[in-house]
Design goal:
CATH architecture of the largest domain: 3-Layer(aba) Sandwich
Number of strands: 10
Oligomer: single chain
Number of helices: 11
CATH class of the largest domain: Alpha Beta
């Protein structure tokens, strides 16, 4: 059979076009080597602990080592940026938390597009914040605190674990919803901010349940409200925002995992399925609930929507409140 010149050139061009397409790793090809989980936080904190719990079980499920690699720095930018530049073949994952969708609006050094440079895998745990006060303050409920703040504009202060963090923006959101003015005092982390409210250096503090619990139970802090839809089993004596008449003050923090952008959807769903199954294992559930978390375990699509919704909400708040962090 003869082939004319036009047919030959068409075949060559088609071959070149196919070879130019990126080679995506799919679920059937994964894993072929050890998997890394990049944690953009220092070792020893809750992010590190959650990553190691899931990493250990993932390793047992897939028959490959899973190595947790801490790469802190620049408010999680160092580790997240590094992970985004790795091949999207499932052998590099990155721990992410509810501060991630704040970064595009709060930090000029964050250059990633969350929809293009990262692939959502799964939200694995979540929880609400608790607003607490020093017991020397003349209020014991959130409505009483709001009334006091309106009578004394600028007199109340709240401690935040850094500028541009989810806890700071939760405080700003509370101010916006209630029409009150409270001074934000940023600290270099949760521990010094907690110490400040315990000593009444600041009047209020906002942090996850697991940090707050022992101090509310001992009476050293007063629990005013939980920002989740349901009361945490770890702190059942503190009402939710809906119970005190503020259903819009619904703010949760979350932890999960992303992968580099461009991952094949079937591979993302496979890895997500492993994380969801791990989250439901009785031993894992008990450990995570004991740490004060609620169990999640979502699909890539649901996790991606959560991140996008959070990014829009915090961007609007930062713009409306004219907040500056740099």
């Amino acid at each position: 059979m003869s082939i004319n010149r036009r047919q030959l050139m068409t075949g060559v061009a088609s071959g070149l076009a196919v070879s130019a397409l990126p080679s995506l790793a799919h679920a059937a090809d994964w894993p072929t080597k050890p998997v890394r989980i990049i944690v953009p936080y220092a070792a020893g904190g809750s992010a590190d602990a959650v990553s190691r719990i899931f990493g250990q079980r993932l390793s047992q499920r897939i028959g490959q080592p899973v190595v947790v690699e801490n790469r802190p720095g620049a408010g999680t930018i160092v580790g997240t940026d590094y992970a985004s530049k790795q091949p999207p073949d499932g052998h590099t994952l990155v721990f992410s938390a509810s501060g991630l969708p704040i970064l595009p609006s709060s930090n000029k050094n964050f250059k990633l597009d969350l929809n293009k440079d990262l692939t959502p895998i799964s939200e694995v745990v979540r929880g609400g914040f608790v607003v607490v006060s020093n017991p020397s303050m003349p209020f014991r409920t959130l409505p009483e605190m709001i009334a006091y703040a309106k009578r004394n504009p600028g007199k109340l202060s709240y401690g935040a674990a850094g500028l541009g963090t989810s806890v700071q923006l939760t405080g700003e959101y509370l101010k916006a919803l209630t029409g009150t003015f409270m001074l934000c005092i940023p600290y270099a982390g949760s521990a010094p901010a907690l110490a400040a409210v315990l000593s009444n250096e600041v009047n209020l503090f906002i942090d996850p349940v697991n940090t707050i619990k022992p101090h509310v139970e001992s009476g050293r802090l007063v629990g005013l409200v939980q920002t989740s839809k349901q009361r945490s089993p770890s702190l059942p004596q503190v009402p939710t925002s809906a119970e005190v008449g503020m259903p819009n003050f619904d703010v949760t923090y979350w932890m999960g995992f992303h992968a580099p952008g461009g991952m094949a959807p079937d591979l993302a769903r496979t890895i997500s399925g492993h994380f969801a199954a791990i989250a439901q294992e009785p031993e894992t559930r008990d450990r995570l609930i004991g740490m004060g978390f609620e169990i999640a375990g979502t699909t890539p699509e649901a996790f991606g929507k959560l991140v996008n919704d959070d990014q829009k909400r915090w961007a609007k708040l930062i713009q409306d409140a004219k907040l500056s962090f740099n």
